[in-house]
Amino acid sequence: MVEKISQGGKKLASKLQVITELSDRTTHSITDNHINWTSFLTTAAWNYKYKFQEQLLIFAQKPDATACAPIGLWNNLGRWVTKGAKGIALIDDKDNTFKLRHVFDVSDTNSKYERPIKLWEIEERNVDSVIEALENSFGELQDNSSIVSSLVSAAHNAVEDNFTDYLSNLLDVREDSFLEELDELNAEVELKNALKSSVGYMLLTRCSIDASKHYNFEDFKSISGFNTPETVAILGDATSDIAEMALREIGETIRKLKKVEKYQIRTIAEKEQNEYHNTINNTNGRMSEHDEFNLYNAGELSSSRPET
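RESULT FIELD:
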């Protein structure tokens, strides 16, 4: 029995080592060029409620993942992990111990009721409300003439408001990186440039806009300076944290609009139903061809990350 436990412990330790090494390799490669970095940003955008290190492992194991959650949450939503599906291993470092936990992408689940999982999206009728919410949260936008320009402007504002939280840490760990020889002012410029493009790319991507049409390799020249694990971690944490703030604001705005729409539709339906019964009563049970109404009913997953 003791031997079996020992073997089991060794197996878990071996898996943890494999995933740790995978994380290290991915950390070293994602800032090699703008293609690697923007590919990572695409995965991170759809899983924006996860921490940077978790986004890194999701990208390394399933780059096309769009909504990840543990098996328990999927079961609570009436979905089951497809037989043979491989979980995405994440490192759990709570309580100063390291162990693995697994999540599954929505594409690896199924529902016997065939009920789809609907992620939030910006629709044309919601654009003005989303822009207004961004301005309320991040200040006056430099250009709010379209949803694209508004998202880019919001990214710039959010970075300006929050980059100092990460700059001091960057200055402490830039030794042996390409940023080492820069003075504080130029290091600040490099960080802000990298963050503005990265956060903007994530915002556009999660809002189903092709970010590659609005950003190119010139916009990501600054990322090459982040070439050590320590500097990559600073850039990744800052990008993930700042983008999450903006995307949470957008998602919450859309969910509130959906609730209002459902309430209005339900109210109209109830009114029409009452009118229908009144018409029936007033016409001795006869109903004209125009006495019809539709009820609206839809299910929606609120986000790509499990919440309590």
